[in-house]
Amino acid sequence: MEGLMVNSRPEIREEDEIHPLVSYVSLDPTYGYVLDCRRGYQGTKNLSDCRRFFLEPLHPKQRQYEALRSYFVDEEPSSDVAAHFGYTPSSFRVLCHQFRRDPHPAFFLDPRHGPQSQPKKSAARDLIVALRKQNHSSYEISELLQQQGKPLSPTAVQEVLRQEGFARLPRRGEEERPPRPRPTVEAVADVRAFSLTPRTIRTQCGGLFLFIPDLLRLHLDTLAAPSWR
Q1: pLDDT(36) > 80
Q2: Quick one: which of 106, 108, 110, 141 has its CA closest to 124?
Q3: Quick one: DSSP state of residue 134?
Q4: Residue 83: inside a domain, yes or no?
Q5: Are 10 and 96 found together in one domain?
Q6: How far is Cα 210 from Cα 98, in angstroms, rounded to an integer?
Q7: 39 and 126, same domain (yes or no)
Q8: What global pTM score does this model have?
Q9: CA distances from 103 to 33, 40, 100 (A)
């Protein structure tokens, strides 16, 4: 949890304990007043520090908000509010006058949203739909888009298909899939047919056998003989 809104906070009593995850209270420029939550116990403010955030605001906009709230909601005298929040009586009267005539006072900022459009998806949407109608999977569509200079990940392709109302393809057999290089299954080696007689062997998967001549030249059996005793 990144933060907890406290615009309508419950009543806090002296005997209540601040939650150990609440490290400090701050004025967030996007979401307004928040209790900032962090893991750990270091830097946890006590109840007096949290109250001081509201009673002694440092940010000018917050100071205006708390002063106006004390006057209009808590019905404190204008002179007391002005003295408490550092205004002269005349300047606080001007602040109240402006507040009453401002239909939309800007004490809080609206959350900033990211871009709503996705140019890459939009540019490839028609092609994705056309390829799915040809029974191509999301991975195949992603590869074809890459070839045409419109790279999209299989996950992004799946999102477009889901938005267009396409269901997932049923699992296809190997004969139904487009031709492409695939892993091959080689015959299992039979150890009983192994022979050390000199001969030539041709294979496409020699593996460690390619290093046998080098291993013989190193005389590893002679080096390892003392460890066998």
Answers
A1: no
A2: 141
A3: T
A4: yes
A5: yes
A6: 88
A7: no
A8: 0.34
A9: 21, 43, 8
